[in-house]
Design brief:
Helices cover 27% and strands 31% of the residues. It contains 11 helices and 21 strands. A 6-stranded mixed beta sheet has the order 6-7-8-3-9-10, sandwiched between helices. A 6-stranded antiparallel beta sheet has the order 20-14-11-12-13-21. A 5-stranded antiparallel beta sheet has the order 15-19-16-17-18. Helix 2 packs across helix 4, helix 2 packs parallel to helix 5 and helix 4 packs across helix 5. It binds adenosine-5'-diphosphate and magnesium ion (MG). Magnesium ion binds next to helix 1. The site of adenosine-5'-diphosphate (ADP) has 10 residues, from helix 1.
């Protein structure tokens, strides 16, 4: 059974429906990222799991037990917020000790002099002290224990918040955009550290973020959340290769997947603007569709094969290990634009503003119906990249630098 189970969870604030029938299962020891744009309900969901917010209907189960209505401290859950939420008047050591002091000692035992007159209290304080030192060592802040939060950098404060979360050895970590106040370099290194720490401790973690890189690099699985619903749950690879709808397709991948208007007529899949034939299907579905293709599956060539689309480069970006060519389709004043990812060496072979031919790599097509849902059709060249044979992929990679060189 899943460690955490969220079942048909609904929440409204007044007339605004914020969570709409959320279903999610998280395995023991798993690192699940909840990825979605700002305002889609991520924090609300996390707060409900933590018991900091009530829900209108549905259930949250942990280890099979229903958590609905339980106070946060009865849930064995630790939360790390973006704001760190440290007590400014306490030292780091005191901030770390606080959750244990509150859990392990009574109000009377917390009186300062009790450490001198009670051996029980004395032992508890020694235990808490060593737990503080252990937690501080785990996130490498041992030398900061006597400082106050104001004397720490953002990254150090964030570590203190992490140490405070893990000191209680909770069954579940909930992290709400914990890295968003850090600069890019620190964010990248802290990402790795958090994942390593979580794997070492084996504690289940739910990590909320709007940053696809964080979700893709850290999580075992990602739940894409759009507008109060879970659009898709899967590994980064699964979502990237087979997005279940247009939102998931656009939310994962940089630059975004190209989306064009298309049509299916009598088993022929075409690009609407140019009529270019993209694929054939045996399925009897006719009508307008959306055609998605990731930038690395667009091939640019200087020779014009039959069926290729003439495109004009509008803008180029050199990014070191790769280059992006933004293009317009249809000549004249193009009203459809797209982007192709290619090897940076290929840039030199292409004059800015030149008209080249674009075709789509077989197997890289994603088709969506008008409501945005993925269409799974049977037929030629319709399987997404993930399901193409490895040999096809290898060829695809080998081919990558070639398109623009060919014919020049
Ligand atoms: N306590 C609240 N009262 C009223 N509206 C709220 C409250 N908390 C969140 N909301 C609203 O719910 C929506 C989702 O918010 P939130 O869960 O914070 O989204 P996210 O974390 O994905 O950015 C937003 O429109 C927000 O304004
Ligand atoms: Mg939030």
């Amino acid at each position: 059974m899943a460690h955490i189970q969220i079942q048909d969870l609904n929440k409204s604030f007044g007339d605004t429906s914020v969570l709409r029938g959320i279903d999610l299962s998280i395995h023991e020891g798993e690192f699940l990222a909840i990825l979605g744009p700002s305002g889609c309900g991520k924090s609300t969901l996390l707060r409900i799991i933590a018991g900091l917010e009530t829900h209108d209907s549905g259930h949250v189960r942990m280890g099979g037990s229903i958590m609905d209505g339980l106070a946060p401290k009865a849930r064995d859950v630790a939360v790390v917020f973006q704001s760190y939420a440290l007590y400014p008047h306490m030292t780091v050591a005191q901030n770390l000790a606080l959750p244990l002091v509150m859990r392990e000692t009574t109000r009377v035992q917390r009186l300062p002099f009790m450490g001198h007159i009670s051996s029980v209290v004395k032992r508890k304080r020694v235990d808490i002290q060593s737990a503080v030192e252990r937690a501080a060592a785990q996130v490498r802040i041992a030398e900061l224990l006597d400082r106050k939060p104001a004397q720490l950098s953002g990254g150090q404060r964030q570590r203190v918040a992490l140490a405070r979360a893990l000191i209680r050895k909770p069954k579940l970590f909930l992290l709400d955009e914990p890295l968003s106040n850090l600069d890019a370099t620190l964010r990248a290194s802290t990402r790795t550290e958090i994942v390593q720490l979580q794997k070492r401790l084996g504690t289940t973690a739910i990590y909320v973020t709007h940053d696809q890189t964080e979700a893709m690099t850290m999580a075992d699985r990602i739940a894409i959340m759009i507008d109060g619903r879970v659009a898709q749950v899967g590994t980064a690879r699964e979502i990237y290769d087979r997005p279940k709808d247009v939102h998931a397709a656009l939310f994962v991948g940089t630059p975004k997947m190209n989306l064009f208007d298309g049509r299916i007529d009598g088993g022929v899949v075409r690009l609407a603007k140019t009529g270019m034939v993209l694929a054939h299907t045996a399925d009897a579905i006719d009508g307008p569709i959306r055609v998605g293709i990731r930038p690395e599956h667009v091939v640019l060539k200087t020779e014009f094969d039959e069926g290729a689309i003439p495109v004009v480069e509008t803008h180029r970006e050199f990014l070191g290990s790769e280059a992006l060519i933004h293009f317009g389709i249809g000549g004249g004043a193009p009203d459809i634009s797209g982007v192709a990812r290619l090897d940076p060496d290929a840039l030199d072979k292409l004059a800015p503003g030149q008209t080249v031919s674009a075709c789509f790599r077989p197997g890289g097509l994603h088709l969506f119906d008008q409501s945005g849902l993925r269409l799974e059709l049977s037929g030629e060249n319709l399987s997404p990249a993930a399901t193409t044979a490895l040999s096809d992929k290898e060829t695809a990679l080998d081919e990558r630098p070639i398109p623009i060189i060919a014919g020049i």
